[in-house]
Amino acid sequence: MKRLVVLAAALAVPAAVLVRTAGPWRLMASRHGIWITPEPRPSCPRCHGAGGWWDGDPTFPDMEACGCWAGRRSLSIPLLPYRVGPAPF
Questions:
Q1: pLDDT tens profile 46-56
Q2: Other Cβ atoms within 10 Å of 66 Cβ, number
Q3: Nearest residue to 51 (alpha-carbon basis) of 37, 36, 35, 67
């Protein structure tokens, strides 16, 4: 288990450097995992950094995601499992 944590910590720094240089990505880390997810590009000519636009009937709007971030993959590296137990109340 310690080797897994050390390996994940060793991978976190290169992943952060890659995310920082590759574009608009969000890096989230906790003791349960490391997640790298795409974000909308601020310089996108279609959505202007909003991530999409509302489409359809105004009473029932539908979000249309822009291709500048919606089609890209995300990466998750699980570290520690979540504890499953009885409800606290």
A1: 988 888 888 87
A2: 19
A3: 67
